[in-house]
Amino acid sequence: MDTVLSGIRSTGNLHLGNYYGALRNFIKMQDENNCYFFIADLHSLTTHPDPALLHGNVKNVLVDYLAAGIDPDKSVIYVQSDVPQVTELYLYLNMHVYMGELAKTTSFKDKARKQPENVNAGLLTYPTLMAADILMHNADKVPVGKDQEQHLEMTRRFARRFNNFYGVEYFKEPVAYNFGQDLIKIPGLDGSGKMGKSEGNCIYLSDSAKEIEKKVKRALTDAGPTEPNSVKPDYIENLFTIMRVVSTDEVIAHYEEMWNTCAMRYGDMKKQLATDIIGVTTPIRERILELEKDDDFLRKVAREGAEKARENASKTIADVRKIMGFKSF
Ligand code: TYM
Known about the structure:
The chain is mainly alpha-helical. It contains 13 helices and five strands. The chain has helices at residues 16-28, 51-68, 85-94, 99-103, 106-114, 121-124, 126-136, 149-166, 209-217, 234-246, 249-260, 266-291, 295-324; strands at 3-9, 34-40, 75-79, 141-143, 175-177. The protein has a three-stranded parallel beta sheet. Strand 2, helix 2 (51-68) and strand 3 form a beta-alpha-beta unit. Bound molecules: ligand 1. Ligand 1 is lined by residues 5-9, 17-18, 20-22, 40, 43, 130, 133-134, 142, 144-145, 147-148, 184-186, 194-196.
C-alpha cells in the first residue's frame, strides 16, 4: 500500500485550482492508500497573517476539505502546527540544504519579486519545510498541481542527499502525482496564467451560484475567430482549459467545433461554463454551510488527526535522531 500525502496553505478558502490540482486526486486515492492530508498553517506564516485571523483560516480550509470529500475515517487529516515534529525535521534537513539551490527556486524568485519588503528566511526555506512534511510520513505519492513540481524535485534531492550522507536507505523519493495524467494548472479567468489566492482571480468552492455566474461573465473574451481552425489566444484557451475539467466531452467538443468554424458565441459558452462549474461546487458548498456550524465535529477530526500524525512523526524523528548520532545520556 502506498502512502499518499498532500497539503494546502491556510491562506483562504479553497478554489478550483486547489480542487483539481490536488484535492480531487487525493479524494480518489483514499480507499486504497495510506492517506494524509494536512492544513499548511506554518507555510502561511511567510506572509505574516494577522493572529486574529489565523485560526479562522485554518477552520475554513478544514471545512472545505471535509466538504469536498476527504473522509476522516479513511484519511488522516491534521493541522501542520499540531505536529511540532515537522519543525524539528525541517531544522535537520536545512543543515543539508544550500543557500544557492534555495535562492534559485522559481517560487522563491516570484515571491521575492512580488513582496520585496518581506523576503524572509522562511520564504527562502519554504521548500525544506515542504520536504519535512512529505518525508515525515515517507510519502510515495504527493497529489499537487503543476506549480509544486519543482518543490517535489527538491524533496527527492534532499531525501537522496540525506540517505547518501548518512549511508542509509531511510527516506523514499516521493513523486508529484496526478491521477492518470500530467500535473495540471487551472488558469484564472482574468487572462492570467494561474488561478491563485494571491492573484485574486479565484472561483472558490464556497462561492454561490450568483457569484460564479458573475465571475465567469466577466472573463476576458474578444470578437471571436475570423479564420477557421485558428490558434486560440491564451485568455480563450484558459476558458477551454477550465471547461475540460468541469464539462462533459460533448459540451467540450461542441465549443471546439464552434471555435473551429468561427461560429463562437461567447455568451453561450460562458453560460454553459458557469452552469458546469456550479454543478461541481453546489454539493460542496451545501456541505460547507452545514459543516461550518459543527465545531464539535471539527474539533474531533482535528484532534484525532493530530494524534495519528504525531504518532507517526515521533517514530520518524526518533529514527532520524538515531541516524544523525543523537544519543541521550
Ligand atoms: P497551495 O496552498 O498554493 O496550493 C495547494 C494545492 O493546490 C494546487 N494548486 C493548483 N493546481 C492547479 N492549478 C492551480 N491554479 C492551482 N493553484 C494551486 C497546488 O499545486 C497544491 O497542490 N506548498 C504548498 C502546500 C504544501 C504542500 C506540502 C503540498 C505544504 N507542504 C506537502 C504537498 C505536500 C502550497 O503552497 O500549495
